């Protein structure tokens, strides 16, 4: 495959009739198929198995039977009904989809063994829901040293994150950090400054080679949305800069493009954004909000930071509507939602989040071609017209 040089024996051939079955990941399969001519010739039959299955009552019953057989095989304590439900929830969390169940039973077996030890330690005859939760909590604590260090810097205000008040041109985006065996999220401050000019939207991350191609694409899409919505009849004269504050490593993905757009709209209109909100989502050129990955980790990350800064916090997260089916949140977050302390809003279009974030109507262009006065879109469009007038040195008819 061009990765290593090797010298092998070339033995005399012998007659052999056998069948060989290789089991592996899709990545390895497609890599071998593309790079190794013998692989294509020798392994002609492909069977692509899914790593998840649809979650319904019949599937849950079958899943319970499989877990019962695993318990018998490994001579573990039986599960209570609630503990079995927790295993099913954990399975859906593995695939980040409330409508599916994971077929990765190695992870299920590991969790069963650890929960079994916890139950035996308290000399129980069954594995309870509390044992499953303790096993999951212990697993997270063993792996979260780096997360704890970052969160300590947020609490000490070495990393500046606002979770209260309102500010112009500033918003809480949500990033995911993946260390393979441990995934967590943290909010990051995204800020924007706007002024008269011809540079357009400048992505500072891209200018210093810290932006991946997908993130740069997201910024270009929001630039296109701005121009298409607000400057049909005039040439937009805007210089804007976007940056992830206190970020010193490469950034990729387009899940921050929605947050970046709101930040720009806030800066242009001078309307502040509530800082007890965080949001995630990508946008297309028509302003529709698109699904993103890691939604559970992102929501839980903002929840953890808000709780870290103030036990009596009141906060919200905005996510894409199409990510609702992916929600599999930990019990602590769900309890906070039930109490009304923490809220999750799902939106389909950028205009739906304006009232939540800025306490102002977005505004819809009427039959006259104008946005309603004192709406956000009206303020943004008029400010962009002012920028163009200053740039051209003449009035533009509205």
What does this entry look like structurally?
By secondary structure, the chain is α/β, with parallel strands linked by helices. 43% of the residues lie in helices and 15% in strands. Strands 6-7-5-4-9-12-13 form a seven-stranded mixed beta sheet, with helices on both faces. Helix 3 packs across helix 5, helix 9 packs across helix 10 and helix 10 crosses helix 14. The longest helix has 18 residues. It is globular, with a radius of gyration of 26 Å.
Cα(first) to Cα(last) distance is 63 Å
Question: Domains counted in the coordinates: how many?
Answer: 2
Radius of gyration: 26 Å
CATH topology of the largest domain: Ribosomal Protein S5, domain 2
């Amino acid at each position: 495959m061009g990765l290593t040089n090797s010298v092998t024996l070339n033995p005399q051939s012998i007659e052999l009739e056998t069948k060989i079955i290789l089991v592996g990941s899709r990545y390895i399969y497609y890599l071998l198929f593309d790079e190794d001519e013998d692989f294509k010739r020798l392994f002609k039959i492909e069977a692509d198995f899914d790593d998840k299955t649809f979650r319904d009552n019949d599937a849950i019953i079958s899943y319970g039977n499989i877990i019962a057989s695993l318990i018998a095989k490994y001579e573990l304590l039986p599960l209570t009904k609630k503990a079995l439900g927790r295993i099913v929830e954990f399975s859906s969390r593995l695939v980040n989809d409330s409508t599916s169940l994971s077929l990765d039973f190695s992870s299920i077996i590991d969790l069963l063994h650890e929960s079994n030890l916890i139950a035996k330690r308290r000399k129980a005859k069954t594995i309870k829901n509390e044992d499953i939760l303790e096993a999951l909590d212990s697993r997270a604590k063993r792996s979260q040293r780096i997360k704890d260090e970052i969160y300590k810097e947020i609490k000490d205000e070495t990393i500046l994150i606002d979770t209260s008040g309102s500010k112009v041109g500033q918003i809480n985006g949500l990033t995911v950090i993946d260390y393979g065996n441990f995934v967590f999220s943290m909010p990051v401050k995204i800020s924007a400054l706007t002024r008269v000019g011809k540079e357009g939207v400048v992505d500072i991350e891209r200018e210093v080679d810290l932006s991946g191609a997908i993130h740069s694409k997201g910024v270009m899409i929001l630039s296109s949305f701005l121009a298409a919505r607000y400057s049909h009849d005039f040439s937009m004269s805007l210089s804007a800069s976007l940056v992830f504050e206190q970020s010193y490593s490469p950034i990729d993905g387009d899940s921050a493009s929605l947050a970046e757009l709101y930040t720009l709209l806030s800066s242009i209109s001078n309307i502040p954004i509530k800082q007890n909100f965080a949001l995630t989502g990508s946008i297309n050129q028509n302003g529709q909000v698109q699904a993103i990955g890691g939604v559970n980790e992102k929501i839980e990350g903002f929840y953890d930071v808000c709780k870290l800064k103030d036990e009596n916090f009141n906060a919200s997260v905005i996510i894409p509507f199409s990510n609702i089916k992916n929600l599999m949140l930990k019990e602590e977050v769900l309890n906070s939602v039930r109490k009304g302390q923490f809220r999750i809003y799902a939106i389909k279009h950028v205009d739906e989040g304006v009232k939540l974030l800025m306490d102002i109507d977005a505004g819809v262009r009427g039959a006259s071609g104008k946005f309603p006065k004192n709406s956000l879109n009206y303020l943004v469009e008029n400010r962009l017209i002012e920028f163009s007038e200053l740039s051209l040195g003449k009035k533009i008819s509205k």
